[in-house]
Each structure stands twice: as C-alpha cells, then as structure tokens.
Amino acid sequence: MAEITNEMILQAIKELAEQLKNHAEETNQRFEQTNHQLTEINERLSQVEQKIVQMDKQLTDVANGQKILVEELFENKKEIKRVKNVLNIY
C-alpha cells in the first residue's frame, strides 16, 4: 500500500511539474508578445515625437516669417506716411 501511495505521489508531482513547465512556457510567450508590442509602440511614439518636433520647427518658421512681414508692413506704412507728408508740402 505504501508503494502505491508513493507512486501516486510521484505521479502527481510529475504532472504538477509538467503543468508548471507548460505554464512557464505560456507565460514566456506572453511576455515575448508583450515585449514585441511595446517595441512597436515605442517606435510609433518615436515617429510621433519626430513629427511633433518637425511641426514645432515649421510653426516657429511661420511665426518668424509673420514677424518679418509685420515689421516690413510697419516700415512700408511709415514710408507711405513720409511720402504723403512730402507730397502735401508741395
């Protein structure tokens, strides 16, 4: 009877070990999938970050261009006013 009990315990241990091995393999596969997904997400975020940097640069260029245009417009208005004043004199 002791031999049967020992054999049953040994068989149960083997089955549990196999289940644990299978579970560990499944868990490792899930971690690998998750790691792959995170890598893809990081790549996408990097692309988005690069696009944002590019857009920021473009917006800065636009703002600088607008500033130049406003300054030139102001100078042109001053010149027009000066010419009108000169013409009014004569």
List keywords for this structure.
90 residues, rod-shaped, mainly alpha
What does the model show?
The structure is a single chain. The chain is mainly α and 90 residues long. 98% of the residues lie in helices and 0% in strands. It is built from 1 helix and no strands. It has one helix spanning 2-89. The longest helix has 88 residues, at 2-89. The radius of gyration is 38 Å and the shape is rod-shaped. The relative contact order is 0.04.
List the helices and strands and how they pair.
Blueprint: H1 2-89
Q: Between the first and last Cα atoms, what is the distance in angstroms?
A: 132 Å
Q: Return the structural class.
A: mainly alpha
Q: Please report the total strand number as a whole number.
A: 0
Q: Beta-sheet strand percentage? A: under 5%
Major β-sheet profile? none
Query: Oligomer, anyone?
Result: single chain
Helix content: over 70%
Q: What string gives the helices and strands in order?
A: H
Question: How would the global form be characterised?
Answer: rod-shaped
Quickly count the helices.
Answer: 1
Question: Averaging pLDDT over every residue, what do you get?
Answer: 94
Low-confidence stretches: none
Query: Could you tell me the radius of gyration in angstroms?
Result: 38 Å
